[in-house]
Amino acid sequence: MKTALVCGAGGFIGGHLVNRLQSEGYWVRGVDLKHNEYGNDKADDFVIGDLRDPRVCEALFDRQIDEVYQLAADMGGAGYIFTGDHDAVVMHNSATINLNMVEMARLHGVKKIFYSSSACMYPEYNQLDPDNPKCSEDSAYPAMPDSEYGWEKLFSERLYLSYYRNYGLEVRVARFHNIFGPMGTWDGGKEKAPAALCRKIIHAEDGGTIDIWGDGKQTRSFLYIDECLEGVRRLMESDWTGPVNIGSEEMVSINEFVDIIATISGKKINKHHIEGPEGVRGRNSDNALIYEKLGWKPTQPLREGMAKTYAWIEKQAASAVK
């Protein structure tokens, strides 16, 4: 039986990844500061621990671990990442976790380690036109991310790849593009745009109005969690290091995204544009490289995944009121 360690297993993607690995027959150990708040952490062994502490990291390897999935990070949505108020803790916490985990993987003979980078590491200057962003993997340099979160992701990519070059550690690096789905944070300030917009529309009356940060013309693509995990597993099973985009090429403006969710809800929703953190003007996954190397790219339409996500958040919101 293969063994896997999922760092950040209490989070949205990590919780789903634990379940995916178990379905494939892995023995899975999860670690996080907290359990998954929606019970999505059915690991064979779950450790509550702070990965900024090297002693906690060391203790995770009391048995042979074949694969490590390093998803743990200090992160959140635009309201957390792009205000500038959390830059120091984001960089310090995430960098410390990665420095600890890649070294432990080396010392304990881990066969493969996966690192979840982010599309936030792409240069801002290539994402100024909302209709024509450039996010191919080879466009990363000259580097100029639009947030310290992106700079830390770029640093950690280079950290993992240096361990590959210098120590032969089998590394896999993927750049996630706006992963969404059920069992994720949907309120409290750290939620991402899909969940935040679902929540706003759920609470709005038919014919009501919701606030949108910016003019709503900024563009993004969003990838459903199941497709993200398929990309991760295909990358890990391959002999290719990356980095590679894991995201959708179905780009929409935020205004269009609101309309999609409103249609799912059955409500007519008006938009009120206000000042707020927006990030870059345009971002879309470029899937040419992942298709070339792995023969795969995501295919699920955005609306299909959003319908599942909306239904789940609607249930959570109803339960919160009771």
Report on this model:
- The protein has 322 residues and is α/β, with parallel strands linked by helices.
- The protein folds into 2 domains: 3-179 and 223-246, 3-Layer(aba) Sandwich (Rossmann fold), CATH 3.40.50.720; 181-221 and 250-282 and 301-315, UDP-galactose 4-epimerase, domain 1.
- The protein has helices at residues 12-23, 54-59, 78-81, 87-107, 148-167, 193-203, 225-237, 254-265, 288-294, 302-321, and strands spanning 3-7, 27-32, 45-48, 67-70, 112-118, 171-176, 179-180, 209-213, 219-220, 223-224, 244-246, 252-253, 270-274.
- The strands form 4 sheets. The chain has a 7-stranded parallel beta sheet, with helices on both faces.
- β5 (112-118), α5 (148-167) and β6 form a beta-alpha-beta unit.
- α4 (87-107) packs parallel to α5, α6 crosses α8 and α8 packs across α10.
- The mean pLDDT is 95.
Q: Globular, elongated, flat, extended or rod-shaped: what is the shape?
A: globular
Provide the gyration radius in Å: 19 Å
CATH superfamily of the largest domain: NAD(P)-binding Rossmann-like Domain
Number of strands: 13
Our count of domains comes out at 2
In CATH, the architecture of the largest domain is 3-Layer(aba) Sandwich
Number of helices: 10
Low-pLDDT stretches are: none
Oligomer: single chain
**Terminal CA distance:** 44 Å
Strand order of the largest sheet: 3-2-1-4-5-6-11
Mean pLDDT across the residues is 95
Major sheet = 7 strands, parallel
